[in-house]
Amino acid sequence: MDIQGKVAIVTGGASGIGAGLAKRFVAEGARGVVLADVNLERAQGVAGEIGGTAVAMKCDVSVEADIQALVASTRRQFGQVDIFMSNAGILGKPGGIELEDALWDKMWQIHGMAHVWAARAVVPEMVARGEGYFLVTASAAGLLNIVESAPYGVTKHAALAFAEWLRIAYGRRGVRVSCLCPQSVESDMTKDGTGSAGLNGVLTPAQVADDVVRVMKDETFLVLPHPEVAKYFQAKGQDYDRWLGGMQKLYGLHSVK
After folding, report:
1. How far apart are CA 203 and CA 186, in angstroms?
2. 133, 152, 170, 232: the active-site residue
3. Is 152 labeled as catalytic in the residue annotation?
């Protein structure tokens, strides 16, 4: 897809990957770029720095009504939604089965249902036009896993699975679908350290945006800013038990006991 002249929504647009993508979409000539974030003041600051066609809107993606309102406001201002970058995410805290249900539920809402709710809001109009792009940020944890946080790894798997399903169901109906699966990227999530996700380096949001735009032009599915992730994913499929053994060693080094 050529981004020039398109209208894009980016959730989690106030920082990190979201802010980097919003900046790049404006540079690519989008006629409207909405930075959606629960922190409106911060999103407004980023939109002001980007300038051009960037605007900020408040949205808590863990609430379906907020997503519906975001899409409705974007349509009122720009006429339609061509690109939806479902990017917002949270790290939570490290741990596993002992973590409270409230954290698991929040992760399910933000990393799982938020993508469903966004698709529910924009995919029908994309199908009607015969064109649109829906992107999901799932992280390398969606393809692999992450040893520090069970709810993060599990819900990012769900994000990837939903993106796959969207591609299967709507890929022949004009809706392009891609899934972004980076390891560590400069953001609020990495300011206190990167853990196992930083083993192959920490990228800038601008570097990730380069890869997203390239994949959008090629209309392929996976966006892998860290090329090592593809090798790990292949190793996982070729010898699952050996891969699990390697992850167990990583768990010993990086998990919170």
Report:
1. 6
2. 152
3. yes
pLDDT in tens, 60-97: 999 999 999 999 999 999 999 999 999 999 988 899 99
Helix (H, G, I), strand (E, B) or coil at 81: coil
Per-residue pLDDT, 250:
84
User: 198-207 long-range contacts, Cβ below 8 Å, gap at least 24?
Assistant: 200/226, 200/228, 200/229, 201/226, 204/20, 205/16, 205/17, 205/19, 205/20, 205/21, 205/23, 206/20, 206/23, 206/24
What is the C-alpha separation between 201 and 194, in angstroms, rounded? Answer: 9
Residue-range domain boundaries for the chain: 7-230
* Residue 257 predicted with pLDDT over 70: no
Question: How is domain 7-230 classified at the CATH fold level?
Answer: Rossmann fold (3.40.50)
Q: Cα(91)–Cα(213) distance, rounded to whole angstroms? A: 25
How far apart are alpha carbons 49 and 45 in whole angstroms?
6
Bridge partners, 34 (sequence order): 9, 55
The answer to whether 229 and 145 have CB atoms below 8 angstroms apart is no
Measured CA to CA, the distance from residue 163 to residue 237 in angstroms comes to 19
